[in-house]
Design brief:
The strands form four sheets. This protein has a nine-stranded mixed sheet with strand order 5-6-7-2-1-8-9-12-13, sandwiched between helices. A six-stranded parallel sheet has the order 16-15-14-17-18-19, with helices on both faces. The protein is of the alpha/beta class. Helices cover 41% and strands 17% of the residues. It contains 21 helices and 19 strands. Strand 14, helix 14 and strand 15 (382-387) form a beta-alpha-beta unit. It is globular, with a radius of gyration of 23 Å.
Length: 552
């Protein structure tokens, strides 16, 4: 029986990872049945917790039990996208028996803590908070209903829940971490609880580290400072005190800036993102050193072990047969969803990740004449699968998703899937020969989907951004869209430049290599599998967080 009033991690801690750490994240993608994530941030924190478990680190996760998750992506009658919210119940979560109150908008709100035990999904211990209790009024219950609620006041309440609610839970658990790690700034309200606990900003700063995931200033969350005060975000501190503590002026509270100013160390999530972040925040005072730890993904969870075994045994025949089998298996799922039955012998391009404007899901389709020639080429046929979830009120991205759905109706070798979550993500990576990633440079802080694609025998084809800058060797382990002086290009010019070069590489390098040089293709593919394991596996990342961020 776990003692949740004096909580200790229920396995022997490795001596080099003994520093007690609490890891705050708005979302965790641990395993498909636990639907409390939306995209890359969750995939990252999920792999982090898996590696913390494998390395036996003294780390626990603090998150929120979203009753309706992010949303369930289904279809309208014409196959276009439909966002739906269904109640989720989880028999595998344990009720800790811990219940306490925090104040939001002047009201005392009951918070209950649930526990995901390490052995359930082989992850570090994870505590999840919920306000969905009969003791609370309905509005208070809805705080933990939808991940990234579109209502501004609800979102601020969610930030208070993760930050102040999470820090308070640690007191209830009597866990007393030496390090509080904020994975993004959603939980930065915790500092106003920690100020009361430790007495000064200096004492809080000794214990707090911050990971930023945003490559541009406009992307950092800001809210009206008076609304934040009204909601109880500052835990009783006056606006004058908050301004003095955070150095902020004006009417907006910048959550990331507050996190930087309370942290003793901060990091970006790729080498390039570290450089971008140092430059971006250099105009602000009282910012700690910003280093970088490149995002990574967990081999044990993501990789196809059979492919790796056959590669290690240099058994090309079995390797190719395994990849064929994986493609065929996924194509059954795609056919079930879309009615499009794809061919495992044909070069398969997959674009699948969060649907956001800057990621340019539709880029390859913007030259319709060239696209038509590519998609109807009978000598060197290709097939394309798209998948991904737009933010449910991002109507621009939903419109792009729906345009692709309608486009897919014209061709038997194009499919658009719904329900892009952990399981479908892995299946599509196993189906991909080419993992297409074409964000607008330099908008991608890291990106991690290409790492797990490589772990499943897909070749990365990407614009030169995020983690790719540290991984890619064009024509050796991946293919890269040639770069330009993007800073001096307008967005339409940049998009057009990338579009022309994407086709250039696809038509002149990728397609001929795949069809005319099978051994050469396999060599590139396997080099990617080796290189991603060497540099982008999350045990390395979780180790670096201890060595670089937590120590000292």
């Amino acid at each position: 029986m776990t003692d949740f009033r004096n909580y200790t991690i229920p396995y022997e801690i490795s001596p080099e990872f003994s520093k007690k750490t609490a890891y705050f994240s708005m979302e965790f993608a641990i395993h498909q049945p636990l639907k409390i994530y939306s995209g890359g941030l969750g995939f990252l924190s999920g792999s982090h917790l898996r590696s913390a478990y494998e390395l036996k680190q003294n780390l626990i996760g603090i998150g929120i039990l979203w009753k309706y998750g992010y949303y369930d992506q289904s279809r309208n009658q014409d196959q276009t996208m439909k966002a739906e919210w269904y109640e989720k119940t989880y028999s595998f979560l344990e009720d800790t028996g811990i219940k306490y109150q925090i104040s939001i908008h002047g009201n005392p709100i009951w918070v209950k803590a649930y526990y995901l035990a390490p052995e359930t999904f082989e992850s570090a211990p994870l505590f999840l908070l919920s306000t969905d209790l009969p003791e609370n009024d309905y509005l208070s219950q809805t705080i933990t209903h939808r991940l990234y609620d579109s209502d501004t006041a609800a979102k601020v309440a969610q930030f208070i829940m993760l930050g102040i609610g999470g820090a308070r839970l640690l007191d209830e658990l009597n866990f007393n971490p030496e390090v509080y790690h904020l994975n993004e700034a959603h939980g930065v309200s915790s500092v106003f609880h920690l100020m009361r606990k430790f007495g000064s900003k200096e004492e809080v700063k000794k214990r707090l580290v911050f990971t930023t995931h945003t490559p541009e200033e406009a992307g950092n969350e800001k809210h009206d400072i008076y609304l934040c005060e009204q909601m109880g975000y500052f835990n009783g501190y006056s606006l004058n005190e908050v301004r003095e503590l955070t150095g902020m002026e004006g009417d907006l509270f910048n959550h990331s800036l507050a996190a930087f100013r309370f942290a003793r160390k901060a990091n970006g999530v790729s080498k390039l993102h570290g450089e971008v972040s140092r430059e971006m925040w250099s105009k602000y005072s009282d910012i700690p050193e910003i280093t970088s730890i490149t995002n990574s993904q967990n081999y044990s969870y993501w990789a196809d072990k059979q492919l790796y075994n056959y590669m290690d045994e240099s058994d090309s025949k079995k390797f190719d047969e395994r990849k064929y089998f994986l493609k065929k298996q996924t194509f059954e799922i795609v056919a079930d969803q879309t009615g499009q039955l794809l061919d495992p012998n044909v070069l398969t391009i997959v674009w699948a990740r969060r649907f956001a404007g800057y990621k340019r899901a539709d880029l390859i389709t913007r030259d319709l004449q060239r696209f038509e020639e590519l998609i109807t080429n009978s000598e060197h046929p290709i097939q394309i699968i798209w998948a991904g979830k737009p933010y449910p009120s991002d109507y621009g991205s939903i419109s792009i998703f729906n345009q692709l759905v309608h486009l897919s109706k014209k061709y038997p070798n194009i499919a658009v899937c719904v329900g892009y979550e952990l399981t479908l993500s892995k299946q599509l990576k196993q189906a991909a020969d080419v993992w297409l990633n074409n964000p607008r440079v330099p908008r991608e802080a890291s990106g991690t989907s290409g790492m797990t694609a490589a772990m499943n025998g897909a070749v990365n084809f990407s614009t030169f951004d995020g983690w790719i800058c540290e991984f890619a060797e064009h024509g050796k382990n991946s293919f890269i869209v040639p770069t330009a002086d993007y800073q001096n290009l307008s967005i339409p010019d940049q998009d057009n430049f990338d579009l022309q070069n994407l086709y250039q590489v696809l038509e002149n390098e990728i397609v001929p290599t795949f069809y005319e040089d099978k051994n050469g293709w396999r060599t590139i593919l396997q080099q990617g599998m080796k290189d991603v394991l060497a540099g982008f596996e999350s045990n390395r990342m979780a180790t670096e967080y201890y060595e670089i961020m937590y120590k000292g």
